[in-house]
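Module 6 notes. Inverse folding takes a fixed backbone as the condition and produces residue identities as the prediction. Think of it as a translation problem where the source language is geometry and the target language is the twenty amino acids. Below is one complete input and output pair. Work through it position by position during the lab.
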C-alpha cells in the first residue's frame, strides 16, 4: 500500500494521524461503527464480526466476536453500533429479528451480553442514545420500533409506525426525548420516547422507501434523509411543518447519509446499488459532488466519520470485502473536471448559453440577464484552505429570446389532444389526422397523412369523395395502343384487335369472351367516361408518356375517325408488305367462332397495304394494378426519419403507431425507443399526462411499455384504526369499518377519493377542496394539519 499523504489533527488532548489505507476482510461487510476515541472500528456482516485497531500505517485485527463451533444467526448482522459513552458496549441487529448487546469487558471469549428476541422479522437498525448509557432503540422490518433498557430483560416501550417496515432510527443529538424513524412508504416520523402511543409528527419525505436519516450534529433542527428516489433532502424541523431546505440529486438509491463533522453544509452518501463511490456533497451546490472517493470495487455498505470532531478521515466498508480509511486530501474533486460551457433550449424556443467569463467578457453588446448576475461564484468558504472550497470557475450566461408569437407550441398541444391513434379503421384515422393538421395550418403534415392513406389502404376502400382516383373506372382507361387494363387482367391476351376501315364501326372490332360480364355495360361506362365533367384520370407506369399517347375509348359511331399509329421509336419497323397475305390461322379461327362476328365478316381476313395495322399480343399485364404495401416502406421510413431529424417526433411516433406492423419492422428498436422517449418527454413537459400514458400503452417497445408499470403499488391505512388495509376491498379486517367514508358528508365515497397521507382521512374531492379553503385542520377532527396540493 503506497503512502499518499499524512495529517495530524489535534482533538483536545489526543491527536489523530494516518493516511489513506485499506485491509481485506474475510467476508463482505454490512455495517461499520467506530469507538468513541477513534482508535478502533467494528465490522459486521452476514459472515463477519471483527474489531480492527486503527494504527498509523495499517489496520490490525484485534478481536473476532464470532466464537463457537456453530455460530448462531445472532452473529448474522444487518447493523452494528458502538456506544459513544461506554467504550466496551456494542449492539447488533440480527437478520433473524434478534437485538444483541456485547460487552467487550467480559473475560471470556464469548462477549455476548444480552439477547432480545421481541421482533418478528429482520432488524434493520439499532441506535444508542447519545447521552443515556442504558437506552437502546431498534427498528425492524415488522414495522415496529422498540426501546430497550439494558438493565432489564425486555423492551420498555414499543412504537408502531403503522407501516410495512422501519429502515432507520436515529436519536436527536440535541433533543433528549426525540428520535426520527424512516419507513418504506416514503414517510418520516418524529417520536417522543415518553409517548409510545402516537408519533409527534409525520411527513412524506420521498417518493419511495426512505433508507436512511441523520440528524445534524450542530444544528438541532436539520434532518437529512435519503431514499430510493435517488435524492438526499435536508429538512428544517423547527417549523410547524417540515420544510425542505436543500435537495441533492444523486445517480442511484441512497443507502447511507452522514453529516461531516465541523462542516455545517457537508454530508457524505453512498448508494445501495449500481454506484460504488462515496460522495461528499455541499448541500448549497447540489448538482456536483464536492469530493468523491472511488476506491471500492463493489457497493459501499457502511460509512462513518472516524471522529465526531474530525472532518479529515472517513471509514467505509463494502461488499468487495475491504475496509478503507479515506483521507480527505486524497479525494477526487469532480468540479476540476466540470465543463464550464453549456447549451440548452427552453420550452418556447429560448436558447441559453453558458461559457467561461474570459471568453465572452469582451462582448460589449451583452446585456445583463434579469435572472441575476452569475459571473462570480455563489458558494465560497471563509477558510483559505484550498481543499475546503470549490474551484473558482465562473461562467457567464447568455440568453437568446425568441418572438413568442412566432414560436408558439399551441399546435403541438392541440395536435396531441386531437390526434386519433387507434380505435378506428386505418383510412379513417389517416383522414381524421389529416383534417386536424389542415385545421392547424400544417399542410405538409396533412398531405403526408393523405398519402399514407392512399399507399396502405385497400383499393376497394378508396372511394372517398375527396379522392379523384376512382379505381372502378380504370377499366375504361386504355394505356397505349388502346389496350384496356381490365381486358388484359381478365386473360384477353389471346385476342387481337384489328383496325378496320375508317368508315366501319369500332364497336365490332372489340371481341370479348362470352363469360366476360364487362361486355354488357361497356357502352355505358364509355359514355360516362367521355361525358364526365371530372378531371381526366390516368395511370402511370415506369415509362413517361406524352399527352397524345393517353386517350379514352369511344364507342360512338363516327363518320370519320383519325387513324392511330404507334410512334416509330417505340417499336421496330416492320418489313414492307408486298402481297395481301392472309391473317394468322388462329385469328381466322377466333373470328369464325366468335358469336359477335358474322360469316361475311369472317371472310374479310386480309388488309391492303394502305390499311396498315399494329398487332401486339400480350399474355401478362404490364404491371400490377395495385402496388403492395411493402413497396412504399422505404419511402415511409425516410419520411419518418426526416420528421424526426426536423424535431417533429410527434409526427414520427404518431405514424409509427397508426401504421403498426406495416412499418415497424423497417425501423430498428433503438431508433423507435429514442423517438418514443423524446415524444413522451415533450408530452410530460406540457403536462399532457393522458396522452403520454396512451402513447406508452400503444407502444410495442418493451422499454417503453414498462414506464407506466413502476411505482403502482398503493399502501392504504384504515382511517379508523390506522392499520394497513388488505387488497381485498375497502372494509377493514380489524375494525370492520368502511375506510372510504367522506370526513365531510360522512357518506361512502363511490367515485374519486382523496385522502391525506398524514392522518389517512379523506373524502369526496370537491368536499375536501371546499373544506381546506376555509380551514387547515382535518375535517375528521383528528387535529392534523392537512394540505391539498
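Target side of the pair, the amino acids:
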Amino acid at each position: 500500500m503506497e503512502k499518499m499523504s499524512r495529517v495530524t489533527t489535534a482533538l483536545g488532548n489526543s491527536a489523530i494521524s494516518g493516511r489513506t489505507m485499506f485491509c481485506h476482510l474475510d467476508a463482505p461487510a454490512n455495517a461499520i461503527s467506530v469507538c468513541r476515541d477513534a482508535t478502533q472500528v467494528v465490522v459486521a456482516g452476514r459472515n463477519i464480526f471483527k474489531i480492527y485497531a486503527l494504527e498509523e500505517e495499517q489496520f490490525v485485527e484485534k478481536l473476532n466476536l464470532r466464537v463457537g463451533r456453530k455460530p448462531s444467526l445472532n452473529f448474522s448482522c444487518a447493523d452494528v453500533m458502538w456506544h459513544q459513552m461506554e467504550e466496551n458496549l456494542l449492539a447488533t441487529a440480527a437478520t433473524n429479528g434478534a437485538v444483541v448487546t456485547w460487552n467487550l469487558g467480559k473475560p471470556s471469549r464469548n462477549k455476548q451480553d444480552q439477547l432480545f428476541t421481541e421482533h418478528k422479522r429482520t432488524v434493520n437498525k439499532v441506535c444508542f442514545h447519545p447521552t443515556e448509557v442504558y437506552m437502546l432503540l431498534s427498528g425492524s422490518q415488522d414495522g415496529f420500533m422498540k426501546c430497550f433498557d439494558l438493565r432489564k430483560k425486555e423492551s420498555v416501550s414499543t412504537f408502531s409506525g403503522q407501516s410495512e417496515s422501519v429502515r432507520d432510527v436515529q436519536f436527536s443529538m440535541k433533543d433528549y426525548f426525540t428520535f426520527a424513524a424512516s419507513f418504506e412508504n416514503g414517510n418520516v416520523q418524529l417520536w417522543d420516547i415518553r409517548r409510545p402511543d402516537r408519533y409527534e409528527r409525520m411527513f412524506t419525505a420521498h417518493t419511495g422507501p426512505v433508507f436512511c436519516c441523520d440528524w445534524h450534529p450542530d444544528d438541532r433542527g436539520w434532518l437529512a434523509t435519503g431514499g430510493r428516489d435517488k435524492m438526499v433532502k435536508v429538512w428544517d424541523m423547527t417549523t410547524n411543518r417540515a420544510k425542505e431546505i436543500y435537495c441533492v440529486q444523486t445517480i442511484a438509491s441512497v443507502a447511507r447519509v452522514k453529516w461531516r463533522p465541523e462542516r455545517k453544509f457537508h454530508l457524505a452518501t453512498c448508494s445501495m446499488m449500481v454506484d460504488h463511490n462515496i460522495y461528499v456533497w455541499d448541500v448549497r451546490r447540489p448538482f456536483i459532488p464536492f469530493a468523491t472517493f472511488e476506491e471500492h470495487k463493489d457497493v459501499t455498505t457502511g460509512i462513518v466519520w472516524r471522529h465526531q470532531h474530525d472532518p479529515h478521515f472517513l471509514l467505509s466498508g463494502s461488499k468487495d470485502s475491504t475496509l478503507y480509511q479515506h483521507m480527505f486530501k486524497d479525494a477526487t474533486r469532480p468540479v476540476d473536471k466540470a465543463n464550464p460551457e453549456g447549451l440548452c433550449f427552453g420550452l418556447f424556443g429560448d436558447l441559453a448559453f453558458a461559457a467561461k467569463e474570459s471568453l465572452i467578457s469582451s462582448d460589449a453588446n451583452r446585456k445583463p440577464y434579469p435572472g441575476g448576475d452569475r459571473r462570480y461564484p455563489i458558494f465560497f468558504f471563509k477558510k483559505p484552505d484550498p481543499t475546503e472550497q470549490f474551484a473558482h470557475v465562473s461562467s457567464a450566461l447568455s440568453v437568446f429570446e425568441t418572438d413568442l408569437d412566432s414560436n408558439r407550441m399551441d399546435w403541438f398541444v392541440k395536435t396531441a389532444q386531437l390526434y386519433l391513434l387507434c380505435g378506428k379503421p386505418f383510412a379513417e384515422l389517416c383522414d381524421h389526422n389529416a383534417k386536424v393538421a389542415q385545421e392547424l395550418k400544417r399542410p405538409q403534415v396533412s398531405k403526408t397523412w393523405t398519402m399514407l392513406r392512399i399507399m396502405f389502404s385497400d383499393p376497394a376502400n378508396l372511394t372517398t369523395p375527396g379522392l379523384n382516383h376512382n379505381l372502378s373506372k380504370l377499366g375504361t382507361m386504355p394505356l397505349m395502343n388502346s389496350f384496356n387494363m381490365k381486358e388484359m387482367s381478365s386473360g384477353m391476351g389471346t385476342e387481337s384487335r384489328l383496325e378496320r376501315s375508317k368508315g366501319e364501326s369500332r364497336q365490332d372490332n372489340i371481341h370479348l369472351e362470352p363469360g366476360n360480364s364487362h361486355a354488357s355495360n361497356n357502352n355505358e361506362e364509355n359514355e360516362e367516361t367521355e361525358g364526365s365533367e371530372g378531371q381526366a384520370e390516368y395511370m402511370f407506369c415506369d415509362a413517361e408518356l406524352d399527352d397524345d399517347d393517353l386517350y379514352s375509348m369511344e364507342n360512338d359511331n363516327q363518320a370519320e375517325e383519325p387513324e392511330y399509329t404507334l410512334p416509330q421509336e417505340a417499336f421496330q419497323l416492320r418489313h414492307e408488305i408486298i402481297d395481301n397475305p392472309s391473317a394468322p390461322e388462329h385469328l381466322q379461327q377466333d373470328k369464325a367462332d366468335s358469336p359477335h362476328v358474322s360469316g361475311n365478316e369472317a371472310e374479310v381476313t386480309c388488309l391492303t397495304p394502305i390499311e396498315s395495322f399494329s398487332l401486339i399480343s400480350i399474355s401478362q399485364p404490364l404491371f400490377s394494378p395495385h402496388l403492395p404495401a411493402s413497396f412504399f416502406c422505404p419511402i415511409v421510413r425516410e419520411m419518418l426519419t426526416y420528421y424526426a431529424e426536423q424535431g417533429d417526433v410527434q409526427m414520427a411516433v404518431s405514424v409509427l403507431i397508426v401504421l403498426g406492423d406495416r412499418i415497424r419492422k423497417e425501423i430498428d428498436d433503438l431508433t423507435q425507443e429514442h423517438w418514443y422517449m423524446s415524444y413522451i418527454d415533450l408530452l410530460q413537459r406540457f403536462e399532457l399526462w393522458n396522452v403520454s400514458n396512451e402513447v406508452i400503452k400503444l407502444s410495442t417497445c418493451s422499454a417503453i411499455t414498462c414506464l407506466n408499470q413502476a411505482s403502482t403499488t398503493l399502501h392504504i391505512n384504515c382511517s379508523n384504526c390506522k392499520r394497513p388495509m388488505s387488497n381485498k376491498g375497502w372494509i377493514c379486517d380489524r375494525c370492520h369499518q368502511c375506510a372510504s367514508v367522506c370526513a365531510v358528508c360522512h357518506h361512502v365515497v363511490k367515485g374519486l377519493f382523496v385522502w391525506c397521507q398524514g392522518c389517512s382521512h379523506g373524502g369526496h374531492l370537491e368536499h375536501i377542496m371546499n373544506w381546506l379553503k376555509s380551514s387547515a385542520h382535518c375535517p375528521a377532527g383528528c387535529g392534523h394539519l392537512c394540505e391539498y396540493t
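Reference fact for the lab report: The first helix runs from residue 357 to 360.
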